[in-house]
Structures are given as structure tokens and as C-alpha cells.
Amino acid sequence: MTNSDAEEPCARPPNKKFKKNPKKTATSNFGSSLFKILENHQKIPEDPEKSFLLSLLPQIKSLDEDQKMLNF
């Protein structure tokens, strides 16, 4: 094994010019736009009674007409 063989694995690859990936730019633009929207979004306080009633909606929809008439 010669000195040149020992240096070869440590040698740097030649400099290549890489093209920028346009997808990364679009993603970062999307991310920053989304962040701005979410940052400026004013959250409306949720009504706990409305939330409770809406949580029952899937069960009520699964009832047939006879069950609905008996219960409501």
C-alpha cells in the first residue's frame, strides 16, 4: 500500500454545482404562508354546550326513525 492509496479515501470529491430544488422553495413558501395565517387567526371561544350536543350527533344519526320517535 502506497501513500497515495492511503490518501485516496480522504480525498474530497470535485466541486460540483448543484441546482436548487424548486420544491424546497415552494414548501418553505407554503410553510411560512401557513404559519402567518395560523398566527393571525383569532380563535373563537367554543361553547361547551354546543360541543356536547355536536358530540351526540353521530349516535343520533345512527338511530332509525322509530328509535328517534321514542327518544325524542
Automatic annotation (TrEMBL):
<feature type="domain" description="BESS">
    <location>
        <begin position="46"/>
        <end position="72"/>
    </location>
</feature>
<feature type="compositionally biased region" description="Basic residues">
    <location>
        <begin position="14"/>
        <end position="23"/>
    </location>
</feature>
<protein>
    <recommendedName>
        <fullName>BESS domain-containing protein</fullName>
    </recommendedName>
</protein>
<feature type="region of interest" description="Disordered">
    <location>
        <begin position="1"/>
        <end position="28"/>
    </location>
</feature>
<dbReference type="InterPro" id="IPR004210">
    <property type="entry name" value="BESS_motif"/>
</dbReference>
<keyword id="KW-0539">Nucleus</keyword>
<dbReference type="GO" id="GO:0003677">
    <property type="term" value="F:DNA binding"/>
</dbReference>
<dbReference type="Pfam" id="PF02944">
    <property type="entry name" value="BESS"/>
</dbReference>
<dbReference type="GO" id="GO:0005634">
    <property type="term" value="C:nucleus"/>
</dbReference>
